[in-house]
């Protein structure tokens, strides 16, 4: 019996949030063990559980997996969220890497020094509206299907919704020029497993606040 996956990370989004999204979308229950302080991280490191002395770490199927992309890839493949052939997987990977670039830019905002915040915010809005969202709007328009790749629900859909919601937290009307993404958002938010993850009280984490930065820095630096 392998039990539920156990996620080791701090109690915030960071590099674990996409993994939470993918498990939730797949309808997989998971447990979380929060790294609350430097000592918790040191304990994991000294216990030999972290291949590169870093979290995220996920205990799953008898493995102690590290490296957030490797973990996400495993979960996507295991739960049939990774396309039906190599070419679909390649497309999903390209889309997901683009989304991840935008998502990381957004997540980095909280960590910007005060004097750089305004410029950084402008970059987020520019990249979202001029680089990334037009691509996915066009993909949906060109093939006319509900899902991004292969007419089948995949991690690309999950991660696009995650990214859209994060971008809207920065600028609520960021989808104003993207009608197909608005419909995509409404549709995917209504998938039962995702709908549940979007309810208050789920394991989805709130946006990192300024007050959390010090706490996170103290654990990891
Ligand atoms: O994607 C990954 O999981 C790795 N390429 C990076 C993981 C990483 O940077 N982990 C940090 C925590 S902050 N990020 O999510 C970490 O464990 N730092 C402690 C250390 O001693 O390096």
List keywords for this structure.
Glutaredoxin, four-stranded mixed sheet, 221 residues, single chain, alpha+beta, Glutathione S-transferase Yfyf (Class Pi), Chain A, domain 2
Could you describe the 3D structure shown?
The protein is α+β, with helices and mostly antiparallel strands and 221 residues long. It folds into two domains: 6-79 and 198-220, Glutaredoxin (3-Layer(aba) Sandwich), CATH 3.40.30; 86-190, Glutathione S-transferase Yfyf (Class Pi), Chain A, domain 2 (Up-down Bundle), CATH 1.20.1050.10. The protein has helices at 17-25, 38-46, 68-78, 86-107, 117-143, 155-170, 179-189, 192-197, 210-220, and strands at residues 6-9, 31-34, 57-60, 63-66. It has a four-stranded mixed beta sheet, with helices on one face. The longest helix has 27 residues, at 117-143. The relative contact order is 0.15. The structure holds ligand GSN. Residues 14-15, 53-56, 67-69, 220 line the site of ligand GSN.
Give a brief description.
The protein is an alpha+beta fold and 221 residues long. The chain contains 9 helices and 4 strands, in the order βαβαββααααααα.
| Strand tally | 4
General form? globular
Task: Please report the number of helical segments.
Answer: 9
Which value, in Å, is the CA radius of gyration?
18 Å
How can the largest sheet be summarized?
4 strands, mixed
Percent range of helical residues: 55-70%
Task: Identify the bound ligands.
Answer: ligand GSN
Query: Largest beta sheet: what is the strand line-up?
Result: 2-1-3-4
């Amino acid at each position: 019996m392998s039990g539920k996956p156990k996620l080791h990370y701090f109690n915030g989004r960071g590099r674990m949030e996409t993994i939470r999204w993918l498990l939730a979308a797949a309808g997989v229950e998971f447990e979380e063990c929060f790294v609350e302080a430097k000592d918790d991280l040191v304990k994991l490191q000294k216990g030999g559980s972290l291949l590169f002395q870093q979290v995220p770490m996920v205990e799953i199927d008898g493995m102690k997996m590290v490296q957030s992309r490797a973990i996400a890839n495993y979960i996507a493949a295991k739960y049939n969220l990774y396309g039906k052939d190599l070419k679909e997987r390649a497309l999903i990977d390209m889309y997901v890497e683009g989304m991840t670039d935008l998502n990381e830019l957004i997540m980095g905002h909280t960590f910007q020094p005060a004097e750089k915040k305004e410029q950084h915010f402008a970059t987020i809005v520019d990249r979202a509206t001029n680089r990334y969202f037009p691509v996915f709007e066009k993909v949906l328009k060109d093939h006319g299907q509900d899902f991004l790749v292969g007419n089948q629900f995949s991690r690309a859909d999950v991660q696009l919704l995650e990214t859209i919601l994060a971008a809207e937290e920065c600028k609520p009307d960021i989808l104003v020029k993207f009608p197909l993404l608005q419909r995509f958002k409404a549709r995917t938010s209504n998938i039962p497993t995702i709908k549940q993850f979007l309810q208050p009280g789920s394991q989805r984490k709130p946006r990192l606040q300024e007050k959390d930065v010090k706490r996170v820095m103290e654990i990891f630096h």
